[in-house]
Amino acid sequence: MKQRHSYSNLLYHLVFCTKNREYVISNNALKNALYGFLKVKAHEIDDCIIEFGGWYDHVHLLIRTRPSMALSETYRHLKGFSSRAWHKEFPEHPFAWGDGAFSVTVDPEDCEELILYIRRQQMIHNSRTAVKKWEPED
Predict the structure, then answer these.
(1) What pLDDT score was predicted for residue 11?
(2) Domain count, the chain
């Protein structure tokens, strides 16, 4: 993040789901590309993605954001840019984000458990051990 004269440490756990919860993030190459798109835009808007992980129909982000931008603007920028970049890079793979997003604030002292949860998304969903407080309801 850019140097500021004041200090803030606003952390959010965000989850973006694909439209109709379709399994379009179907392999690691697509997931890694999506992470790259989100990371580029986060940097452009002076946010920082601390952790990224996902499943075939959604992604989890632990993000540090600045207080001068509304969270809804952060959603708009990240989802809009990543969707456009995906269509440009993978025109043969239709993609769209669903409406809205899941978000909760995160205490900086409680990040470690969430980071592990985000990193282990494939294993968690394969074993059906998702933690309700960190997953959007269908």
Answers:
(1) 95
(2) 1
